[in-house]
Amino acid sequence: MSELRTENLTISFGGLTATNDVNFNIKSGEIVGIIGPNGAGKTTLINLIAGIYYPTSGKIWLDDRDISQIPAHERSALGIGRTFQLIHPLEGLTVLQNVMTGFLFAQKMGLKQAREEARKLCKTLELTGLDRATGEINILETKKMEIAKALATNPKVMFLDEVMAGLNSTETLEAIDIVKQIATERNLAVGVVEHVMGVITKLTHSVIVLDTGRIIASGPYKEVAQNERVKSAYLGGGA
Ligand SMILES: Nc1ncnc2c1ncn2[C@@H]1O[C@H](COP(=O)(O)OP(=O)(O)OP(=O)(O)O)[C@@H](O)[C@H]1O
């Protein structure tokens, strides 16, 4: 059982406070949506937790350990995994080799074991044709590869940053099933940034709503969607 918790988490870029006093948590087996209009601070929150940025103030706890000041690669080794909003496959490598990177670098496996584990993981995601270059695979396969790369780091907590973007409705349903299955099987804590509210409804147990860096509402999506402050944040944000 693991828990990721932020405590008054804040970051300012010059005069702009992109994450402002954010308190939230995700526990093993939970899928929490992180929603809000464009520029609300969703990706910044993930970047803070993953260690791409260090907070201006506040803390990030993984269980009873304060991870706020440790570098990204150490957070990854402790169990913080994530996908990226802008997909960046390692070009020149095959699909299999891309997935192997997590096993090699985060889990420090040897080549042979990393290859075997990567094959097994891709099989569970129904990702085939692993010797193809990343430029030859379709968008659903690309998304599966990105999820596999994150899983290959053996996370306790995994953040998915708009992984459904660009998928058609059938592919989206498949991706939702995959994420739910993984979260259950691995007892993962999952944070999901997503603009499509149909995905949020089907996938998450609860959400936090960010607006200009602050949490303005939290709870099950159906309740939060009725909140007047949330409605006006979306209208004001143009989303
Ligand atoms: N490295 C940075 N330097 C300066 N400003 C930044 C930096 N990273 C993010 N910001 C600003 O912080 C705010 C929040 O950005 P962020 O990307 O977290 O929003 P978001 O909710 O993920 O938006 P979107 O839904 O459009 O992806 C924006 O105003 C953005 O310009």
UniProtKB/TrEMBL annotation:
Entries under CDD domains matching the protein: ABC_Mj1267_LivG_branched
Protein name: Branched-chain amino acid transport system ATP-binding protein
GO cellular component, one term: plasma membrane
GO terms assigned for molecular function: ATP binding; ATP hydrolysis activity; L-isoleucine transmembrane transporter activity; L-phenylalanine transmembrane transporter activity; L-valine transmembrane transporter activity
Alphabetical keyword list: ATP-binding, Nucleotide-binding, Transport
Domain of life: Bacteria
GO biological process: D-alanine transmembrane transport; L-alanine transport; L-isoleucine import across plasma membrane; L-valine import across plasma membrane
Residue span, ABC transporter domain: 4-237
Organism per entry: Spirochaeta isovalerica
Xref: InterPro entries: AAA+_ATPase (IPR003593), ABC_AA/LPS_Transport (IPR051120), ABC_transporter-like_ATP-bd (IPR003439), BCA_ABC_TP_C (IPR032823), P-loop_NTPase (IPR027417)
Keyword ATP-binding: yes
